[in-house]
Amino acid sequence: MKSKTHSHGGNGHDTDGASATGGGGGGGGSSSSPSPPPSPRRHSSISHCRRRLRPVKSISSRSLGTLAAGIMTRRSLRYFFLLPLLYISGLLMCVGPFSAFIGGPPLPGSVYRSHEVFRHLWPAMESDNSSAIVLSSVWKYKRKLREHKACPNLSALHHDQIASPGLNGFLIVEANGGLNQQRSAICNAVAVAGLLNAILVIPHFEFHNVEFGDIYNEDHFISTLDGYVKVVKELPEALMEKHNYNISNITNIRVQAWAPVSYYLGVVYPILQSEGVVRIAPFANRLAMSVPPHIQYLRCLTNYKALRFSSSISMLAKKLVNRMIEKSSRSDGKYIAVHLRFEEDMIAFSCCIYDGGKAEKLEMESAREKGWRGKFKRKDRIILPNLNRVEGKCPLTPLEVGMMLRGMGFDNNTSIYLASGKIYHAERYLTPLKMMFPNLYTKESLATSDELAPFMGYSSQLAALDYTVCLFSEVFVTTQGGNFPHFLMGHRRFIYDGHSKTINPDKRKLVLLLDDVDISWRTLKEEMEDMLSESDRKGIMVPRVRKINRKTSIYMYPLPECRCLQQSMADQIDQIRNSE
């Protein structure tokens, strides 16, 4: 029997998959990772920009003619100067990206030359005996946090309840995507259940053949939310019998992406009251960021307290963190974690060109056809690899990450944890990175095959291991965006007193620097040091948040709303490391 569906507006577009790290941006297919949730759409402000015309009592025909001539003269002069500028701008925009097709020189930074730059710089890099940066003193900026405010208590939450008092029915959601898109869906589901005063059924995962309990501790989730949102593991027998023991028979509401509170109260709530149960599938990014404070608090409580990895994941993750600390004895147990998105499907999806020649071209065409079945061959799809690189949309290679970090001042004694799926042509592309950083580790090199065996083939569980090791690194490096770094940066802000401690490179600037095969090591170092300083400065930034008017993601910028849940950094780290 087909499921009943209620539709309201568009249901948005969710691009997501999962590699072994479950992160990164712009990917798709079996091993790609989720893109970061876009910011909620802003309402048009045209109405506020219109000038209100004042009525004129009387005006003579002569005066009217003079006025019209004056207006036309001013407009003509304005267009006289404006039109040439628009014409020149149009030429630059149109001709620039296509210059390679019309015989012009390639745009600066549009061609991958990093391997040539590395060959040129390696002798100077290897002989550089200047003092290395100390990991414990990388971050110079400190955030002055406001005093702790008490978290909303139960009576306040219930007093502010928008829906009617008393439980109104059951809410079922299906979380799609990789590890962190699922995490977003779970947090939003708790928020919606709190908004509607509904009982939340433990969320179902749409893909990857895993259940909630395979990744998260169900009992801890339920007990932490007790008193705020009631959570059950399954629907009551009576409701299951009513729907012939088939969840697809339950009314499914197709909710538009970033739906506001008013939609849930106006559309979902009446159905929940009349039928006693509703289902929302898919449920990625289906709630706006701007919600009442007590509902926002439920997101914080879920993300940072209720969601704890399952005991099997937690135990191995704790071992990996401790092993990285042991391997980093030269730097007082501190290490760098790099989220590298250089898997075959990620490169294929980006449509970027590296130094693999014809063989690479054939492999990428095959990967695109296998993963996206002709999507990239449509007549309306224009692929401009050179422009993608100039705009910073190409995944960084291991080589580029290595040169960037060495330029920032990290020496070859630095321990690096690599969070990644299967690297494209790993032996070839990882070799220069290992030359620059011999102390390079992955979950595969830190754990035994027996320890990893239960998780093999399950991308979300492998991503959870990477997530934990990255969370406790002194420096986290993101290279391609996506939900994985999106959530990690927010989580790190939460536990590190408001600082994300993340290197987020300016890839547009980086490709221009690595386009110059004659660049000196000194020049590159100066530029990379500036880039590190900029990441440091941005790491403490907190977007301005007005009440019920948040434009940015609370998962990436958890302060100030989640501030009341913060403990001392040492207590939080100890609590997470020792949790099972």
Automatic annotation (TrEMBL):
Residues 1-49 are annotated as: Disordered. Residues 20-30 have a biased composition (Gly residues). Residues 40-49 have a biased composition (Basic residues). The chain crosses the membrane at residues 79-102. CDD domains: O-FucT_plant. GO terms for molecular function: glycosyltransferase activity. It comes from the Eukaryota. Keywords: Carbohydrate metabolism, Fucose metabolism, Glycosyltransferase, Membrane, Transferase, Transmembrane, Transmembrane helix. Pfam families: O-FucT. InterPro entries: FucosylTrfase_pln, GDP-Fuc_O-FucTrfase. GO terms for biological process: fucose metabolic process. PANTHER family: O-FUCOSYLTRANSFERASE 10-RELATED, O-FUCOSYLTRANSFERASE FAMILY PROTEIN. Belongs to the glycosyltransferase GT106 family. This is O-fucosyltransferase family protein. It comes from Arachis hypogaea (Peanut).
